[in-house]
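Dear H.,

Thanks for agreeing to be a second pair of eyes. The structure we're designing against is below in token form, covering all 368 positions.
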């Protein structure tokens, strides 16, 4: 056989192997099992919750000119046989955190699509794909890599990983991917209000269904709490906030609103705060290696207490105290242990009766 003959024979053998063992290469295995495929009825996206701003009159421009701006952007994925509850994944740093586990593999987006939940990826006004702002914005490079390592709690100081951290520490590409995936965040009091306005309009519109659970990370937790206090329907059913930085307080306790920066506290009328108590469940979830006296952990306990005092059901969950979840980071749903974090969310959705199917079938087994 000549050179090309060998090549042809090798290709034929490879094709035969693929035909007989398709899962060996074509299907990523999970614990040696084939996973349930993701079967979508449809996917797409839309803008929502924006304003139409009139141009100031000028020599060059008619005041009838307008700008449609400050909307949020919602991308959606609807399974073929969906459950009733929409999971709205609300990032702080970027949508990427919901899309893959650190170093690759299923993120919460695919995990919960496999479980038949409609998944929505949300960019609030001015961030990510909702960049069409009504006001001038600016971006100033801030040499953020070191700060990312610290704020995401990968270790006690830059470059020193926690020994048990749920991150592939020797995978330099994983670290590079993690630290590059960021948008301009606009952590200001005004941006928090702006996000809550757009998100509450989206929630009340019916366009994301009538059973919404927000999954939030970091600074998005405050925005989602505020959104629930602004909504005038019962469409929002729950919030699961991973490492929420910032809290909403009612105006009858001694909380002082902080208008500097986007990390709260934000104070709302008691009647609006009580909307958080009408949700089926609220969970404030913390990764490992948090100080017990961390001001945000303390605030989460206080707010959970207030929500429960008004008849709600809020809990604070410390992942570091649970088996297999030591070393959980600031973004635990992207951790190497994110399957365990997902199972905690399964339990939350079950006990709040938010796991039913649109077609009425319930309690079906989902594959891993
Ligand atoms: C403003 O509108 C008027 C009437 O349509 C038009 O005549 C004029 O040229 C416009 N001016 C500018 C600056 O576009
Ligand atoms: C990472 O690499 C170091 C040094 O080669 C090794 O000691 C350690 O076990 C590795 N860690 C993991 C999680 O593979
Ligand atoms: C809910 O009602 C209040 C009072 O009318 C209003 O200010 C607010 O904009 C409404 N929220 C939404 C999301 O429409
Ligand atoms: C709030 O603060 C004021 C002044 O510091 C104090 O008099 C009051 O007792 C406090 N109220 C509560 C409910 O803690
Ligand atoms: C929190 O606790 C640590 C020790 O566990 C202590 O060093 C620190 O000063 C405390 N911080 C506050 C704000 O109380
Ligand atoms: C919240 O719900 C859980 C599970 O249904 C229940 O065990 C817990 O007691 C509830 N907490 C409150 C404060 O109602």
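And this is the sequence the design step returned. I haven't edited it by hand at all.
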């Amino acid at each position: 056989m000549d050179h090309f003959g060998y090549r042809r024979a090798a290709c034929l053998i490879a094709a035969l192997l693929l035909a007989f063992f398709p899962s060996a290469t074509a299907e990523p295995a999970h614990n040696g099992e084939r996973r349930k495929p993701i079967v979508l009825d449809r996917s797409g996206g839309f803008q929502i919750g924006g304003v139409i701003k009139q141009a100031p009159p000028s020599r060059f421009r008619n005041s009838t000119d307008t700008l449609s701006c400050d909307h949020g952007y919602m991308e959606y994925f609807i399974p073929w046989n969906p459950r009733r509850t929409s999971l709205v994944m609300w990032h702080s740093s970027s949508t990427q955190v919901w899309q893959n586990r650190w170093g690759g593999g299923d993120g919460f987006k695919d995990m919960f699509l496999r479980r038949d939940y409609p998944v929505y990826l949300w960019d609030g006004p001015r961030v990510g794909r909702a960049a069409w702002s009504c006001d001038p914005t600016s971006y100033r490079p801030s040499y953020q890599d070191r700060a990312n390592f610290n704020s995401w709690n990968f270790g006690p100081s830059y470059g020193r990983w926690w020994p048990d951290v749920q991150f592939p520490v020797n995978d330099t590409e994983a670290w590079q991917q993690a630290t590059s995936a960021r948008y301009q965040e606009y952590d200001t009091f005004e941006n928090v209000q702006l996000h809550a306005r757009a998100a509450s309009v989206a929630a009340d519109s019916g366009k994301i269904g009538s059973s919404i659970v927000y999954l939030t990370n970091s600074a998005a937790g405050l925005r989602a709490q505020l959104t629930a206090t602004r909504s005038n329907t019962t469409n929002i059913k729950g919030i699961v906030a991973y490492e929420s930085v910032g809290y909403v307080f009612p105006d009858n306790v001694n909380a002082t609103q902080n208008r500097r920066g986007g990390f709260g506290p934000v104070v709302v009328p008691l009647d609006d705060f009580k909307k958080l108590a009408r949700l089926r469940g609220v969970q404030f979830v913390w990764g490992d290696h948090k100080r017990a006296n961390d001001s945000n952990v303390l605030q989460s306990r206080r707010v959970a207490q207030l929500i429960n005092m008004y008849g709600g059901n809020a809990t604070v969950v410390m992942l570091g105290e649970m088996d297999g979840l030591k070393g959980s980071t600031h973004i635990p749903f992207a951790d190497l242990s994110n399957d365990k974090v997902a199972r905690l969310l399964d339990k939350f959705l079950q006990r709040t009766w938010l796991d039913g199917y649109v077609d009425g079938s319930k309690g079906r087994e989902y594959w891993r």
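Two observations from my side: Residues 249 and 302 are 9 Å apart (CA to CA). Residues 3-20 form the longest helix (18 residues).

Warmly,
E.
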